[in-house]
Design a protein that fits this description.
The protein has 114 residues and is an all-beta fold. It contains no helices and eleven strands. Strands 2, 4, 5, 6, 9, 10 and 11 form a seven-stranded mixed β-sheet that branches. A four-stranded antiparallel β-sheet has the order 1-3-8-7, with no helix packed on it. A hairpin with a 5-residue loop joins strand 5 and strand 6.
Length: 114
């Protein structure tokens, strides 16, 4: 199983980014996929989840601003981030669990600064 996150970068407050998580070895359409983030000096936190049925859940801090989605044909999961705030700055990781084992992408850095 491999997860490859991309799409991070520098954006001004109020701006948008779309993160992608390309996968191999799994079928994203039949499992829950997650986005986490970790800012310096903090614990990794769950940001968004999309389940096998397509239902989504978000951390309170990003509700209404972030959208998780997936493209089954591309086996890729996305995180659309709008109205970004400085406190959204972090390394973002995609994650899934298969057979009781967690798999992580390498992370993509999001910087929110003017």
């Amino acid at each position: 199983v491999q997860l490859q996150a991309s799409g991070g970068g520098l954006v001004q407050p109020g701006g948008s980014l779309r993160l992608s998580c390309a996968t191999s070895g799994i079928i994203v359409g039949i499992r829950s996929m997650n986005w986490y983030r970790q800012a310096p000096g903090t614990q990794r936190e769950l940001v968004a989840t999309i389940t096998s049925t397509g239902s989504t859940n978000y951390a309170d801090s990003v509700k209404g601003r972030f959208t998780i989605s997936r493209d089954n044909a591309k086996n890729t999961v996305y995180l659309q981030m709008n109205s970004l705030k400085p406190e959204d700055a972090a390394v973002y990781y995609c994650n899934t669990v298969r057979n009781g084992r967690g798999y992580w992408g390498q992370g993509t850095l999001v910087t929110v600064s003017s």
